[in-house]
Amino acid sequence: MIYKNLSQKSENVLVGLKLAFQIALVIFIIWVCFNPQTRLHSIVAISLMLIFYFLQSYFEKKALFHNELITAICNSSQELIVYKDCNGKYLYCNQVFLDTVNKTLEEIKGKTEADFFAENDAAKFNKISRRVLKGKVIRKKVELENGDKIYDITATPLVLTKGVLGALIIAKDITHEEKLKSDLEDTEQMFRSVLQGMPIATYLKDLNGNVYYENKMAIDFLGLSDSDNANKWNYEEKRADEILNEDNEIISECKCIVREKQITLKNNDKRWFKVTKCPIINHKKKVIGICSVARDIDAEKTAAEQRETYVATLTHDLKTPTIAQIKALDLLLNDHMGPLNNEQKELLTLTKDSCNFMYEMLSTLLSTYKYENGDYALNCEDCNIISLAEETINELEAMLKEKNVTVYMHTEGSQFNTECDRMQIKRVLTNILGNAISYAYSNTQIVINIRQEENGICFEAKNESAYINPETMNNLFKKYVSHAAKFNKIGVGLGLYLSKQIIDAHDGNIYAKSFEDNHNIFGFVLPLVNKVVV
Question: Is 295 helix (H, G, I), strand (E, B) or coil?
């Protein structure tokens, strides 16, 4: 309406100026004809007036279509630009439109959509033209019948004082954008379908903590009813601060966190969940939300508790008679029950060694479960790794003599003290050195390297033993896996697994290397200043 009013005012001004100019010109010609000094013949005067009229009419009718500036602007546009007369026939179009219909400007003049487009497409464009010629401004998206083109069309009437002179139509090709939008919608729908079918609670939150998507399982986890708005759910008061702190940690540090929690569901049923939360990052590497996944581990927790109770009971019941056996053997070996000959002492010594091995194995089993369940708190103190290694070697002297293996120790650096749980690190040294001796070839050497590194203190034990293939090497530090079977040895595979748990708890790193020249290295690195994981 504003456009129409402005057009009418402009047209009125132009008509007034044109009329004033015409009157002035007529007065001038009359003055020239009747002025005694510049008198012209009346036929000449009339001829001048007719020439002026025809020239004016010609330029008024042709200016719209032959203005070079307007033509240049239209042809430089990437949109299709068309001008129609009041009957809906083409009068002008830019080069983009001509290329689209593969016609020339002269070929499109006086034609309609039916001459260039399929029947259904022509009907769509014709409908828009009819509404525009009635004085309406139209903004519409049109998809061609074959689906290969989609246009965003803006059409406006050209209004003069006498009414609608014609229609100006501008069409922008948005095919690529629409296809991208459709692909994104399909991808999002596929993503939502996958999440709905997952057997874990999954939900997405924005930076304000509002949930804007959740699958069916998450509704129970979040405490929502089917009619609740996902953006208006509330935590229990005791959990609100905890979750807020977790969200702030994820957003500020851009990292994932994993927690095991006991959650009260809608039916007041308390269950254990393993909750994993990760930041959602856009293409600018900016956090825009949080993705949370909660897996029900209540059955696993119950089984773990039962297994822990069973293991604790079993180890306690086995350790008690084992200790009694060791004490009884000590009494016999110390001649408290009478003198023994050498053969008897040797037999009792072997029996005691077996009891000690059983006792140590039971301790390893119990310690493994304590580490796994987070029940073990490290007692850190200042400890010298060289002294601890020498102490461990002395305790393993019997094994060294049995296989005739010698140990050499090399040190590099000046700082060999670190904060650690002395008893637990000694357990690691015992496992590593015990394995090195057990699997070493007889009459060989074990070289121990202890060196100071930038990240801490490194301990390595290198022996001569059979090559360990990569597949076995990758599983050495896993539970119940060892390379003992390769050498026909008996073991439960918990020693190296427990050693890894201990080193990880000290924020260190344990590793193993094997070489085809029958040399193997087992070692670990402890930080000088520990950030202990308790």
Answer: strand
Residue 158 pairs in a beta bridge with 166
Q: Are 167 and 132 in contact (CB under 8 A)?
A: yes
Helices and strands counted in the chain (H then E): 16, 17
SS3 46: helix
What residues have CB less than 8 Å from 514, skipping those under 6 apart? 467, 468, 469, 473, 520, 521
C-alpha 487/C-alpha 516 separation (Å) is 17
Identical fold between 68-177 and 381-526: no
This prediction's pTM = 0.43
- The secondary structure of residue 336, as a DSSP letter, is T
Closest CA to 256 of 222, 218, 215, 290: 290
Residue with token string 């360990």: 468
| Domain 68-177 is found in CATH 3.30.450.20 | yes
- Average confidence (pLDDT) per 10 residues, the chain, 534 residues: 43 60 66 57 52 53 50 76 87 86 86 86 88 88 82 85 80 88 87 80 84 78 52 47 82 88 77 89 89 87 76 69 79 80 82 76 68 66 90 84 89 86 86 88 92 88 90 77 45 70 88 91 84 44
Handedness of CA 233, 237, 243, 249 (dihedral sign): positive
Residue 387 neighbours by CB distance under 10 Å: 12
d(CA 48, CA 42): 10
Region 381-526: CATH code: 3.30.565.10
With contact defined as beta carbons under 8 Å apart, do 431 and 498 qualify? yes
Measured at the CA of 173, the angle between CA 113 and CA 95, to 5 degrees, comes to: 60
Enter the tokens of residue 139.
């903004």
